[in-house]
Recover the amino acids of this structure.
């Protein structure tokens, strides 16, 4: 049975059948050795963005809103589903929300092969985060294809400051004893060399990323096998 750091109040428009969690859940296969490596910066990871517990673990996230996409919105590829939209202005390069779910290993018995919500966390460790059955607002980020000319956000590696069990994200106590753990986060794209994205993401605008060619290749393969 997976372990989780807690279930909290659901955001508006959260769908039935999906568990909302404010922070990662962990498969039993993710042992203490793997967890320790997620807490240990290396020369190549120490410079990643650092997100405070207040910014990363407070929930629901006030920077975003989940919106239902009308079933008759024929121009939107996620019609009848959901999208993630900016609730406030999001400047270029700014942090939006962590991508949380079930952290699992690459073992076949520990992986949901049918999931469309599985995001790599550490390829060297063979760990990924699957938000198919439980997650937070970030699971509703759509791919830009068919919606916009280009993405306005992206997934980035980052560190988040973890809380002792007795503290909340709004706690004002000293942070000197808190540990850091690596995460995947959704960030606004930078303004670009030509400054075309200098405005960031406006309130009410859909937050869109690039899922990548591998995702769509595997998705199309699964659909073809299903039709066979």
């Amino acid at each position: 049975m997976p372990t989780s750091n807690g279930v909290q109040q659901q955001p508006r428009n959260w769908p039935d059948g999906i568990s909302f969690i404010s922070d990662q859940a962990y498969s039993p296969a993710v042992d203490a050795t793997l967890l320790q490596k997620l807490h240990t910066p290396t020369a190549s990871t120490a410079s990643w963005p650092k997100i405070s517990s207040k910014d990363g673990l407070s929930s629901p996230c006030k920077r975003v809103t989940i919106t239902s996409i009308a079933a008759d919105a024929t121009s939107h590829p996620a019609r009848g589903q959901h999208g993630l939209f900016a609730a406030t202005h999001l400047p270029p390069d700014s942090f939006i929300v962590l991508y949380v779910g079930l952290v699992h290993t690459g073992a076949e018995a520990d992986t949901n092969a049918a999931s469309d919500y599985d995001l790599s966390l550490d390829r060297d460790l063979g760990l990924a985060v699957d938000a198919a059955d439980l997650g937070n607002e970030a699971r509703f980020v759509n791919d830009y294809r068919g919606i916009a000319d280009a993405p306005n956000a992206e997934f980035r590696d980052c560190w988040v400051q973890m809380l002792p069990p007795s503290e909340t994200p709004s706690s004002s106590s000293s942070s000197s004893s808190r540990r850091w753990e690596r995460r995947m986060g959704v960030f606004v794209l930078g303004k670009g060399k030509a400054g075309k994205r200098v405005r960031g993401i406006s309130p009410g605008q859909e937050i869109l990323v690039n899922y990548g060619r591998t995702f769509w290749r595997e998705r199309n393969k699964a659909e073809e096998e299903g039709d066979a």
